[in-house]
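Q: My labmate handed me this sequence with no annotations at all. I'd like to see what the chain might look like in three dimensions before we decide whether it's worth expressing. Could you predict it?
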Amino acid sequence: PFNNMGIPGIRCIDFVIPGYGYLNPYARRMFVSPTGSRPIDEVMVAKPTFFTLWIGSNDVLGYATSGGEGPTAAGGTNKISDIDMFNNAYDSVLSNLRRKGAQGVLLNIPDVTSIPFCTTIPAKGLTLSKNDANLLNNAYNSLNGYIRFNEGANYFIIEDSSVPTKFRHIQDGEYILLSTPQDSIKCKGWGTKKPIPGKYVLTANEVAKIKAATTGFNNIIYLMARRENLAMVDMNSYLKTLQVGITFNGATFNANFVSGGAFSLDGVHLTPRGYALVANQILMAINNKYKSTIPLVDVNKYRGIQFP
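A: Here is what I predict for the chain of 308 residues:
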């Protein structure tokens, strides 16, 4: 049996679905009984005596990475999970893991709007010359200043079905996703002559839904950690510190795409060095809760982004 049951695309609510291995080919490769068992049943094949439980991110991530719409990878979904279903599934997973007295560590869910997939392309990242700004203003002249460009930095134009024109300037606190085709911005006028499609954008309303769900899910995880008297890592707070930078043995890591060193090139998952930072948070929680003396890992011995 495997002792690492990390499965691409799996949500917390999927752990109690019989036959999930048939739905997700990544799970199918790992499961003893892919067409009949639930993921939690497969986890229990390993007979764990100690566990780390970091599930739930995918219950909101698919919604975020699809701009609140559209399909996602195998086993995933673009919908935010229902909070009652999340609560029941998390409780079931944890109860199974604890059935024979296993101890462990729970990790909560990061704010997915703070990862490079959402933050790399700035809302005000459109740089225009005076001439280009004038040409665009002439093109939008019939809108009486609703769309306006200036020389220098400007906000991109995005789709928004809730406004009469069906498009508008993006606002601070909204996000253009890393999946946005850069050639369409540079060569096809996306963000200027044409609005960036909604599946590449998170609007303020969508961001609010993501943050509310993340808070709700994390409250459940926190309460269950207290109920079971288990160690817990506040990964939501820790990964936010990457916005300003984390230093380990003289090396600084942050959430900048490519150069930050902590996140991989998909802008979502961590690099081996990033996961080493996470591992140290887990080890510190274990040592603190269970009075152990497990040494921390040397983060800088692990691989970061490979530059040519």
